[in-house]
Amino acid sequence: MANDKHSLRVTDKYSPQVISVSSWRAFTGTLKRDLLLVFRRRSDVVNPLLFFTIVVTLFPLGISPESEFLAQIAAGVLWVAALLATLLSLDSLFQQDMADGSLEQLVISPHPLAVMVLSKVLVHWLVTGLPLTLLAPLLAVMMFLPDEGYSTLFLTLLMGTPTLSLVGAIGAALTVGLRRTGVLMTLLILPLYIPVLIFGTGAVISAVNGMAVAGHLAIMGAMLMVALVMAPLAAGAALRISLNG
Amino acid sequence: MQVLLSGQGLSCERDDRLLFKDLDFKLHCGDVLQVAGPNGTGKTSLLRILAGLLPDYDGELYFQGRAIHDDPDIFRENLLFIGHQPGIKLNLTPEENLRWYQSLYHPANKEQIFHALAQVKLTGFEDVPCYTLSAGQHRRVALARLFLQGAPLWILDEPFTAIDQAGVKEVEQLIADHAKNGGGVILTTHHNLSLPTELNVIQLGQRQQSETEQT
Amino acid sequence: MWKTFVAWFHRMGSPKWFYDITGRWIPWFAVASALLLIAGTVWALAFAPEDYQQGNSFRIIYIHVPAAILAQSIFFLMAMAGAVGLIWKMKVADMVAKSCAPIGASMTFIALFTGAVWGKPTWGAWWVWDARLTAMLILLFLYFGVIALQSAFDSKQSGARASAILSLVGVVNIPIIKYSVEWWNTLHQPATFTLTEKPAMPAEMWVPLLVMVIGFYCFFGTILMMRTRNEILEREKRTHWVQGLLSKK
């Protein structure tokens, strides 16, 4: 094994196994741990979904229950609500780890911090973005979204919510060391969400109007790729700063 | 003896306050080094610098004679750091907590984890959620990592916090054994350590001249 | 010994060097910006020809366009200074980045305000969701985020680093935001009249505009140096050279 020379062996007593560290194992280990934590606190999964549903309900109540009118704003309302639900749930992404000291253990572990961040973001998406995506078509019925829009709504959310989780992780990492974080994090991250909102909504509107959506989806895929490469690095750098804030 | 960790000309200034300046030290294999000094003199900052958590310092750190920033991964693989917070998830059991830590380093099976927990007197608590345990028991879960990780270098920030008298004795014995086996330990504590081996001290918060090693 | 001395000198010495050298530059920049801005304003208001469509109201571009250009350049400069501060741990770069933010936000606000004032006679409304104006509005939000983050940290150093990361993320995002807003704009408001994108501006119109842009840059340079010098004095107030400077006066 290539890494054997790295591990300095004091005595055999302290080295039960000669297996080098592996970042993949650390990634899956962190993934399992965070999923287990979510499983132990299931209400955390439900809350963003409830929030999403309530925000969508507010629009017919606040503006007009007319089906023609709602059909027009359906895509935008669903996207804005999904975006806000993601943002609010991101607030706590690193908070618990910071408070109990396991964040500093992640930072000094012999693995790229970006990989560890990616693992945590993946858990966040699995328990927030993915359920939101699955729930959105149901709420679209309540908003009278025309039939042509459903598949595109689902696809754009499927590609857009991971981007939201990734970009939001930067904001969560920048503010995790601060005492009051909620509003500040929203202020930092919402402007960065605008392109995802524009293309997500635009794609659904195009689909409803019978136009091609491949271009929109390609751009959303490109945004996801950029976020996938850069956001974990930025969030990792931000975490190192926040630990010493 | 081989030098495990050494620092040259370490200075740390945090927000216009000079914590220490031109600090040199050498930790040989088999050494126990205590960082001592009154509150607010930078003990925790020094330990965080050594662990690689605090980048705001001048000077150079060497692990086995090689500058750490040249190859931080070798250093990190061989380091076990326990900070102020024990790093224990309250919604997980001690076993699950340790399993996660071992996924970051060397994987351990159930037997090894149970053995380590038995060493810190947590037999019978392996499968209960940590929120039912006391603060002292949380600390013991963290200290169980000392048995699992096999890292030669231990950096422990106040390892005796919240631990009862008998526990302190056991941890002292553990530290002494680790040193005897050729490991190195750097720690801060307000307890009076009673170790069979020689204890080296870095004294912070005094005039510059006295801030040297006493090996 | 020599190495630590060099490290010390580099760290402690460069704010002083920056302070001294900018002290000598500021008068030149101040004079240049005053001359350029006065010349440009008089030229633009009194001598440049009227626009055949908009009449005299178009003359506000002589403020609007330079402010909009500055707003974007300053964000870029702020991110670059932040990156230098992050990578080489250079204190002066952190201070430059910090000084950039409020100036950039003001420029963005001026661009938005003049855009609104221009919008009234042109479109008949104070606010129109024009691509350029919307992108400016989002840029203003980004500036607010950077400023808010800078002041949220207890430690100035951490605040500077955190906002450096945010402004770098912002710089990556600005082209994406601009592109998406322009795309969104064509979708919802096809072919309205957009600011500044005139087919061909005669030289009598764009030369004073160029003078104004350069004048704005000089003005920005002056203000930036003054703000950074203040920041240096504030942060280095415990050092000997600042103490000496204060006791001299």
Q: What's the structural blueprint in terms of helices and strands?
A:
The complex is a heterotrimer of chains A (245), B (215) and C (249).
Chain A: H1 23-40, H2 43-62, H3 67-90, H4 95-100, H5 102-108, H6 113-142, H7 150-175, H8 182-208, H9 214-243
Chain B: E1 3-14, E2 17-28, E3 32-36, H1 43-51, E4 58-63, E5 66-67, H2 72-77, E6 79-82, H3 94-104, H4 110-119, H5 135-143, H6 145-148, E7 153-157, H7 165-180, E8 184-188, E9 199-203
Parallel strand pairs in B: 3-8, 3-9, 6-7, 7-8
Antiparallel strand pairs in B: 1-2, 1-4, 4-5
Helix pairs in contact in B: 3-4
Chain C: H1 2-47, H2 61-88, H3 91-123, H4 131-152, H5 156-188, H6 203-235, H7 240-248
Question: How does this structure look, described?
Answer:
- The complex is a heterotrimer of chains A (245), B (215) and C (249).
- Chain A is mainly α and 245 residues long.
- Chain A has one domain.
- Chain A is built from 9 helices and no strands.
- Chain A has helices at 23-40, 43-62, 67-90, 95-100, 102-108, 113-142, 150-175, 182-208, 214-243.
- The radius of gyration of chain A is 21 Å and the shape is elongated.
- The two termini of chain A are 39 Å apart.
- Residues 1-19 of chain A have low confidence and may be disordered.
- Chain B is an alpha/beta fold and 215 residues long.
- Chain B has 2 domains: 1-78 and 152-215, P-loop containing nucleotide triphosphate hydrolases (Rossmann fold), CATH 3.40.50; 88-150, no CATH class.
- The longest helix of chain B is centred in the C-terminal third of the chain and has 16 residues, at 165-180.
- Chain B starts with a strand and ends in a 12-residue tail after the last strand.
- Chain C is mostly helical.
- Chain C folds into 2 domains: 16-48 and 208-249; 60-191.
- Chain C has 7 helices and no strands.
- The longest helix of chain C has 46 residues, at 2-47.
- Mean pLDDT of chain C is 85; it is low at 190-194.
